[in-house]
Amino acid sequence: EGLRALPGIGPYTAAAIAAIAFARRTMRGDGNIERVVTRLYAIEEALPQAKPLIKEMATTLLGPSRAGDSAQALMDLGATICTPKKPACSLCPFNEDCAARERGDQDTFPRKAAKKTGTLRRGAAFVVVRGDELLVRSRPAKGLLGGMTEVPGSDWLAGQDDADALAQAPELASVKHWHRKLGVVTHVFTHFPLELVVYTATVPARTRAPDGMRWVPIATLDGEALPNVMRKVVAHGLGE
């Protein structure tokens, strides 16, 4: 408590100083330590609610002396062996006592509370091909995915129906009919989930790009600033 009263010292730093500098039996709230402990004891409670329990259980792993070294060892264990994905359980000194490893679901710990998402938004994306080129545009500099590259599309709105979304297709004189691909592309942003219907069209070689849009070689798409949702759209639109 005395350390936390100092300016700029929070609970994590206070615990680290207490353990390393003063050999107090205290455990810092490190993500690597949380992963080791939740797997070792198969703690089902989700983060962040589980933090007090994790800290309590982690403290039982501290040695009778050199508390700072014990805490550092647990951090290193989480960083190098008890990793988030594909932990090297065969190398772990706790492997015979690890409840999660015994169950075979160690990759699922620590448990995390389900993300709260907003109302589903819907829209359309238009994948237009001219030979070996794709029609794209840049998103506005400000706002969601600011400045990134996308294929033309409709607004993303809650409750938007397919007809309204299709009406926002790019104006291309040679396109008389848009082909709707089966299925939808789904993506989850921090504040809302999204469903996009994908329409495709092929245009003649001399077709000019509408204002604000451009043609880019499909072979160079990896070099474009395409967000993940647009990479899904392009893969869906160009797929068989």
SSE blueprint:
Blueprint: H1 11-22, H2 31-41, H3 51-59, H4 67-80, H5 99-103, E1 121-130, E2 133-138, E3 149-150, H6 162-166, E4 179-180, E5 185-188, E6 193-202, E7 213-217, H7 228-238
Parallel strand pairs: 1-6
Antiparallel strand pairs: 1-2, 2-3, 2-7, 4-6, 5-6
Helix pairs in contact: 1-4, 2-3, 2-4
Describe this structure as you would to a colleague.
- The protein has 240 residues and is an alpha+beta fold.
- It folds into 2 domains: 11-108, Helix-hairpin-Helix base-excision DNA repair enzymes (C-terminal) (Endonuclease Iii, domain 2); 121-238, Nucleoside Triphosphate Pyrophosphohydrolase (Alpha-Beta Complex).
- Helices cover 28% and strands 16% of the residues.
- The chain has 7 helices and 7 strands.
- It has helices at residues 11-22, 31-41, 51-59, 67-80, 99-103, 162-166, 228-238, and strands at 121-130, 133-138, 149-150, 179-180, 185-188, 193-202, 213-217.
- Strands 1, 2, 3, 4, 5, 6 and 7 form a 7-stranded mixed β-sheet that branches.
- α1 (11-22) packs across α4 (67-80) and α2 (31-41) crosses α4.
- The longest helix has 14 residues, at 67-80.
- The model has no long low-confidence stretch (mean pLDDT 92).
